[in-house]
Structures are given as structure tokens and as C-alpha cells.
Design goal:
Blueprint (H helix, E strand, L loop, with lengths): L1 H12 L7 H16 L11 H31 L7 E4 L3 H6 L5 E6 L13 E6 L30 E8 L16 E6 L5 E6 L4 E5 L4 E6 L6 E6 L5 E6 L3 E6 L5 E6 L5 E6 L6 E5 L4 E5 L4 E6 L6 E6 L5 E6 L3 E5 L5 E4 L8 E6 L4 E6 L3 E6 L5 E6 L13 E6 L5 E6 L3 E7 L22
Antiparallel strand pairs: 1-2, 2-3, 4-27, 5-6, 6-7, 7-8, 9-10, 10-11, 11-12, 13-14, 14-15, 15-16, 17-18, 18-19, 19-20, 21-22, 22-23, 23-24, 25-26, 26-27
């Protein structure tokens, strides 16, 4: 009795080994591994009854309608012959009770002769006889494929570079000086002899091209001005910059009419039109805003892009415009800004500029020197070119910063990072036979 008491007291006086959470977790993991490691990666034994039920269900869904239709055809052929060429495929038992409205009919269609009459015979098409919520799955595999509704692109001749002007060796006619930092944008008026410029020095200047000097300056931006545009019918100038504001100016009085504030980042693209919405802006906050010029308020905000919207281009004749971002190029309708479709391929670079002419040829220029040409109607890229940097320039100076067509739309002018201005025109020797359209319509239409 005394030895038992002594051992119990000795056990009570022994210190308890401290256990950390990490050590306890490892012990628990070891116990779980010892319990379940023999059955690891082993599947449970198959159940023959469930397998049989599953296979019977698949066979019934796929072939039940065809088998019942064949049986019904055999019965009808054994009875009185009929002159009709329509065969009825019965559905499930519930559809038999419901009547003939829940069935599908296979009809033999006689095609029309195509000119020479070489194509004759009959083709089989499956015509659904009802539009209910329950679809006849037994004939889904026989249904005729619906042709793609994507518009087929028009043929355009490929473009080629035919002239390069270098700033240090080209024939210079005139130099206009006035900005103290780099110039970000230019706009030439079609109604006056004015040209407007904007730069990183927060200034917007109006140049008289007859006197070749600055006649007005517009002050108000808090940071660099990245884009500008002239209204087509009234004497109004729009500018956007790093202060996230698009400002509306009266050209003659130099007064600020509106300050469109709503973007969360740099306003880097803007264009105007004669009817509402008269102002459309794109920003680095990945949104596009449509503005009411009369009241200075937002009419709509488009949030389809996921990256910065650096370029906008309005079609010269259609009521639509395109926006370019690093994720994709998207097309919208006007005046509501409804999303139409994406382009069928991605340029996979930062797109700095884009433009479109009257024939529906859209050009986009990227930071890596890529110049892609697109068909406006379908969004198909029919030419993918790469600019060639001048000898002595770095590979990083291959970027294209500005694009513009001339008045006729037959010449394209590009301004590039290697201090060159290149001109492009269509290849006059190209034909649809020498340069066919390699177009494959998409399987589905992406809505975003």
C-alpha cells in the first residue's frame, strides 16, 4: 500500500512536458496518416446496379425517340400507304398523351435547282413542332446547325509604307515654338485658320496659321493636358488631362464653359459630335463617359473595359464608335452607347492611337510598334504590320503615338517614338485572289 502511494505521489510530482501547437498538429497529422494511408487513392468498389441504371438512362435519352419513330414508321408502312413525306418522331410517354404538339417532324425538302441543275435530290431537315419549355432531347443531335450571324468582312487591300520623314533630315517648312514641355495633342479647325495644341506644361494654345503665332492661351488645367478635340458645328474646344477633368472652352473668349468631372483617373481620349451625346471621353479608370454638353452632366457610363481606355475613334458616317484598351477593342452604338461586339483578335499591347476612314478601315497603333488594320463591320483584322525603327534607334522606340487619315482617307500618317513620321497607302496591285480574306466566324458572341 505504501509503494502504491509513493508511486502515485511521484507521478504527480513529475513535470508535464510542454506541447506546442506545432507539435500537436504534427501528431494529429501522423495519426490521420496512419489511419487512412492504406486506402489512399483507392476508388470504392463499383455498384453494378447503379451502373446499369445510368447506362439505361443515357440510352433512353439519346435513342428512345429514334427507336419509337422507326417502330411507328414500320407500323404506318404496314398499314395504308400515305403520300405525305413527313415522318413524326414521338417523344416521351407524356408527350404522346399531350398530342402531336409535343413532337418533332422530319421533313424531306426538295432544294431548288441552281442554274445548271446539277444539284438535285432531297435533303432531310429536322423541324421542331413545338416551342415549349421541354426540349426533345432525343432529336437534339439531328437538328440543323444555325449559320453564324456574324457579318462577313469586306475585302480591303493591304497597306504598305511608302514614305518616311525624319525630323532631322526632312525638309522643314516652319517651326512653331511656345510650349516648354512635350506636346501631347494637336487639332486643326476646319472652320477657321486655327490650330490648337496641348502639352504637359498644363497649357492649351491657339495658333493662327496665317500669322504663325500664338493668339490665345487657355489656363485651367491642374496638370498635363493629354487630349483635345474641336466641336464640328460650334466654336467649342474640349481638353482632357491628368487632373481627371474634361474642360469645355469657348474658343474666342477663352472662358471655361464646363468642367466635366466624374472620372477617377487621367482623361486621355475625347471626341465630339454634332448631336447628343456631343462629348465622349475615355479614361485610365477603364470607363467611357457620354456627356450632355448643354447641362454638363453625365448621360451614361460604359464599364465594359478592364484596362485603361487610351484611344477612341468615331466612324465618319455611321452612328457608332470604337474604343481601344490593352484588353480588347470594343465597338459601341450611338447615341445610347450600347455594346455591339469585340474585335475577333487581340493586339496584346497598349494601344495609343486609333482611327477609321470612310471605307471602314480601322487602324490601331501600339506601344510595341505593331500597326493593325481592321474591317470595321466585322472586327476582323485583315493585316498585322510591324513598323521598322530607324538605324541608331532603340528597340523600345518602336512605339506608335498618333494615327490620322488624310481628308480622302487614302493615306495614313503615323507618328512614332523614333522621331519619324511615316505615310501608308493601299497596295494598288493587290486583288482578292492574291490576298484572300482568311476569316473564321466566332462560335459565340461575347457580350463583354
Amino acid at each position: 500500500m505504501s509503494t502504491t502511494t509513493d508511486s502515485a505521489s511521484a507521478a504527480a510530482t513529475l513535470p508535464i512536458e510542454p506541447q506546442s501547437i506545432k507539435k500537436l498538429s504534427f501528431k494529429s497529422i501522423k495519426r490521420s496518416l496512419d489511419l487512412f494511408s492504406p486506402n489512399h487513392s483507392q476508388l470504392p468498389p463499383p455498384d453494378p446496379l447503379s451502373k446499369k441504371i445510368r447506362i439505361n438512362h443515357k440510352v433512353a435519352v439519346e435513342y428512345d425517340g429514334i427507336k419509337s419513330g422507326a417502330n411507328q414508321t414500320a407500323k404506318s408502312s404496314a398499314g395504308a400507304p400515305s403520300s405525305s413525306t413527313a415522318l413524326v418522331l414521338s417523344g416521351t410517354e407524356s408527350s404522346k398523351k399531350a398530342g402531336s404538339q409535343s413532337d418533332s417532324a422530319i421533313m424531306s425538302v426538295q432544294p431548288k435547282n441552281l442554274g445548271d441543275g446539277s444539284l438535285t435530290g432531297k435533303s432531310t431537315a429536322v423541324v421542331p413542332a413545338h416551342m415549349g419549355s421541354e426540349r426533345n432531347l432525343s432529336t437534339a443531335a439531328l437538328m440543323e446547325r444555325i449559320p453564324s450571324r456574324w457579318p462577313r468582312p469586306e475585302w480591303h487591300a493591304p497597306w504598305k509604307n511608302y514614305r518616311i520623314w525624319e525630323t532631322h533630315s526632312g525638309k522643314l517648312k516652319l517651326t512653331l515654338t511656345g510650349h516648354i514641355e512635350q506636346v501631347r495633342g494637336l487639332a486643326v479647325s476646319t472652320r477657321h485658320t486655327y490650330m490648337f495644341s496641348a502639352g504637359d506644361d498644363k497649357l492649351v494654345k491657339c495658333w493662327d496659321l496665317e500669322q504663325n503665332k500664338v493668339i490665345r492661351s487657355y489656363h485651367g488645367h491642374l496638370s498635363g493636358v493629354y487630349c483635345l478635340a474641336l466641336h464640328p458645328t460650334i466654336d467649342v474646344l474640349l481638353t482632357g488631362g491628368r487632373d481627371s477633368v474634361c474642360r469645355v472652352w469657348d474658343i474666342r473668349s477663352k472662358m471655361q464653359i464646363h468642367a466635366f468631372s466624374g472620372h477617377d483617373n487621367t482623361v486621355c481620349s475625347v471626341f465630339t459630335r454634332a448631336t447628343d451625346p456631343q462629348v465622349i471621353t475615355g479614361s485610365h479608370d477603364s470607363t467611357i463617359k457620354l456627356w450632355d454638353l448643354r447641362y454638363g452632366k453625365t448621360m451614361a457610363t460604359l464599364t465594359h473595359h478592364k484596362k485603361s481606355v487610351r484611344a477612341l475613334a468615331k466612324h465618319p458616317t455611321e452612328e457608332s464608335f470604337a474604343s481601344a484598351s490593352a484588353d480588347n477593342i470594343k465597338k459601341f452604338s450611338l447615341p445610347r452607347g450600347e455594346f455591339l461586339h469585340n474585335t475577333l483578335s487581340q493586339q496584346k499591347t497598349i494601344i495609343n492611337a486609333m482611327t477609321v476612314n470612310q471605307e471602314g478601315v480601322m487602324a490601331t497603333g501600339g506601344d510595341n510598334g505593331s500597326l493593325w488594320f481592321w474591317d470595321w463591320k466585322s472586327g476582323h483584322s485583315f493585316q498585322q504590320s510591324q513598323t521598322i525603327i530607324q538605324p541608331g534607334s532603340l528597340d523600345s522606340e518602336a512605339g506608335i503615338y498618333a494615327l490620322s487619315y488624310d481628308i480622302t482617307g487614302s493615306r495614313l500618317v503615323t507618328c512614332e517614338a523614333d522621331k519619324t513620321i511615316k505615310m501608308w497607302k493601299e497596295d494598288e496591285y493587290a486583288t482578292p485572289e492574291t490576298h484572300p480574306v482568311n476569316f473564321k466566324p466566332p462560335k459565340d458572341i461575347r457580350r463583354f
